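Predict the 3D structure for this chain.
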Amino acid sequence: MSDDVHLLLLLAALVVGYLLGSIPFGFIFTRMAGLGDIRKVGSGNIGATNVLRTGRKGLAAATLVGDALKGTAAVLIARHFGNDLGAVAALGAFLGHLFPVWLKFQGGKGVATFLGVLLGLQPLAALAFALIWLALAYLTRYSSLSALVASAASPIVLWLLGAPGTAGVAFVLAALLWWKHSENINRLLDGTEGKIGQKS
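Done. Predicted structure below.
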């Protein structure tokens, strides 16, 4: 394969990943359910945690699954043409969720999509992420704190699993996730962060 063809494939993986990642499931599902614009509820986020604040657990679960699987799908489609393409698609999907073109680049914070791309890249790392998130969420009831710790652990888990290249991608995604959670971090430090299941 020539360098030019490989470069085109990398670009295609990034674009396809971005377009898949930019599908705003939380926004779509809440609109379909007649709940209006989810961006006007709670934190204003389009992700599953904010959808849960509507009191509709089924919609929150559907949003979680949709946001995760769009990341998984992007990685698996791209990996069919090469492992490095899967990593690029993972980045594209994550950026698509954070900055969806359909919502004027105002998207979610990426937790479910982070989990989804991990599932596509390395299922054991996705399992570790889920277990860490669930344990901390059970103990603290803080979705944001659980996500921050789980995402920070993911590059380490991937490194230990013998995937240093993928660990590098996960480090970039975790850094973006922490950046998107900057307000949550401030609220956690202030003791004003909302807990799981808390309605607006």
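The CA atoms of residues 139 and 146 lie 9 Å apart.
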